[in-house]
Recover the amino acids of this structure.
């Protein structure tokens, strides 16, 4: 007894010790996990600090080198002050010291003179001579942002936009000029000039342009028989109507007749990096030729130090995207009617081609016969009614689902009844009357099983008869619908033709008249 008690006590102590060891192991594992996480975080932070410190050291060296360009920095600061003052209606500060060969100084003075309706052609020619490309960009964007689109000259816009790349992509400057023109910054002729440049070979027919246009409005349902052969025609008719509605909504938006408020010059940051103000500030901040690389590096280093995003970092000739993708985005953008209207002008030929293809499909004459599944059986239908052979085959297939009573269903009750008769007669007479009762019960059971089998068979026959009746009724009804649909072919063709003609008129409406507000004089 004493040995048993001692052994049990030792076992309990061993169990407690194992539990304590398991808990200790768990805590140690958890501590190691947390420690590895802390070490990883410390390494990451240390790496960030090292990168930021190296960037700070390099930034200090570059800033020391940029001391020699203090005059150019003053020109940039002065440019921002002049634009802000002109945008707010205040008197801009007087011109500062000019930096030889730096285009920005005379370009700012040229804008000031144009806003004052007293163009200084000498200072304008000097700015263009120093850097015709950047001066043209500055004049176009600045005058548009300041609401003086009539002062923008055709050759400035032509020089600023340049040639679209062979791969169909545009730069940040080209995208900014594109959106500025769309928002009314250059007038009708300026917009036409930009649209013409965006119509590079393949733009109008490179893909199905009707899809992004149609997505601007809800789906249109067109009633018609639910035949697979006709579904394509009905869908084409619905898509054509939906396309016409979407194009009418874009072309009929009167808000695009006036310049967009987003054109106004804003000194601070804007969410859109390719907006007029953002690209204008980027153009100013890139500096003169001698300091341009250093200033770009300064912007990158500041981003590394702050750990933020590269807002405002980059060059004016950075790619902004492919024309096709930008057009798709503009067509789907319901918040920018100016951009959508301009995109529609660019791809109007492709949209009309898609509309003509839809119209051709919608006007196709429906087939003389169609096949439809009724009661899970295929039936061939025509305007004269269901095909007799296919209808008879479907009826026969339904009737075949009802099988006659099998030998098992009939033989089972008969055998059970015979056995009951033997029990009732033989055992009842020879042994006891109790067996007579048992035999009668067996016979009654056999009769019940037979009646149940007959009832089931009759129910199956009745169900098959109902299905055949529904088959005939639906076949006649569907054939009548097909006849009615075929009889309305002429009316559908007329409706589709009217939709297509309306789209052609809307496309012409998208092309503005050549008179009215336009890009200014063509000579400097």
């Amino acid at each position: 007894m004493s040995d048993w008690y001692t052994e049990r006590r030792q076992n309990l102590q061993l169990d407690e010790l194992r539990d304590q060891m398991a808990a200790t192991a768990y805590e140690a594992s958890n501590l190691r996990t947390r420690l590895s996480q802390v070490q990883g975080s410390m390494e990451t932070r240390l790496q960030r600090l090292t990168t930021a410190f190296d960037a700070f050291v390099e930034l200090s060296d570059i800033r020391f080198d940029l001391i020699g360009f203090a005059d150019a920095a003053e020109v940039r600061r002065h440019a921002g002050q002049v634009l802000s003052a002109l945008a707010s209606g205040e008197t801009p500060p007087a011109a500062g010291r000019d930096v030889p060969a730096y285009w920005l100084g005379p370009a700012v003075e040229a804008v000031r003179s144009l806003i004052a309706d007293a163009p200084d052609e000498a200072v304008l020619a000097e700015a263009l001579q120093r850097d015709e490309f950047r001066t043209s960009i500055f004049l176009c964007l600045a005058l548009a942002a300041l609401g003086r689109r009539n002062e923008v000259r055709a050759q400035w816009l032509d020089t600023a936009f340049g040639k679209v790349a062979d791969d169909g992509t545009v730069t940040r400057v080209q995208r900014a000029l594109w959106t500025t023109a769309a928002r009314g910054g250059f007038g009708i002729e300026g917009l036409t000039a930009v649209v013409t440049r965006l119509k590079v070979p393949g733009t109008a027919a490179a893909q199905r342009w009707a899809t992004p246009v149609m997505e601007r409005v809800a789906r249109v349902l067109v009633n018609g028989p639910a035949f697979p052969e006709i579904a394509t025609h009905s869908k084409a008719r619905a898509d054509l109507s939906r396309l016409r509605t979407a194009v009418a909504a874009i072309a009929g938006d009167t808000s695009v007749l006036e310049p967009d408020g987003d054109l106004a010059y804003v000194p601070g940051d804007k969410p859109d990096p390719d907006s007029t103000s953002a690209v204008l500030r980027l153009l100013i901040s890139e500096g003169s030729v001698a300091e341009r690389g250093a200033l770009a590096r300064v912007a990158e280093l500041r981003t590394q130090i702050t750990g933020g995003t590269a807002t405002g970092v980059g060059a004016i000739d950075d790619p902004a995207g492919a024309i096709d993708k930008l057009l798709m985005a503009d067509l789907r953008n319901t918040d920018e009617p100016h951009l959508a209207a301009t995109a529609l002008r660019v791809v109007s030929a492709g949209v009309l081609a898609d509309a003509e293809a839809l119209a051709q499909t919608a006007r196709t004459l429906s087939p003389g016969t169609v096949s439809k599944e009724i009661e899970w059986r295929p039936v061939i239908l025509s305007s004269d009614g269901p095909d007799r052979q296919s209808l008879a085959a479907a009826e026969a297939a339904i009737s075949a689902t009802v099988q006659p009573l099998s030998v098992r269903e009939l033989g089972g009750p008969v055998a059970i009844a015979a056995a009951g008769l033997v029990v009732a007669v033989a055992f009842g007479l020879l042994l006891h009357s109790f067996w007579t009762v048992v035999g009668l019960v067996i016979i009654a059971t056999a009769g019940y099983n037979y009646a149940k089998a007959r009832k089931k068979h009759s129910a199956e026959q009745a169900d098959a008869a109902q299905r055949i009746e529904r088959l005939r009724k639906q076949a006649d009804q569907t054939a009548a619908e097909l006849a009615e649909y075929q009889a309305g072919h002429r009316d559908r063709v007329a409706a589709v033709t009217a939709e297509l003609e309306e789209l052609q008129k809307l496309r012409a409406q998208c092309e503005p008249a050549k008179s009215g507000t336009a890009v200014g004089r063509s000579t400097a």
Remarks:
- Confidence is low (pLDDT under 50) at residues 513-518.
- The chain has 19 helices and five strands.
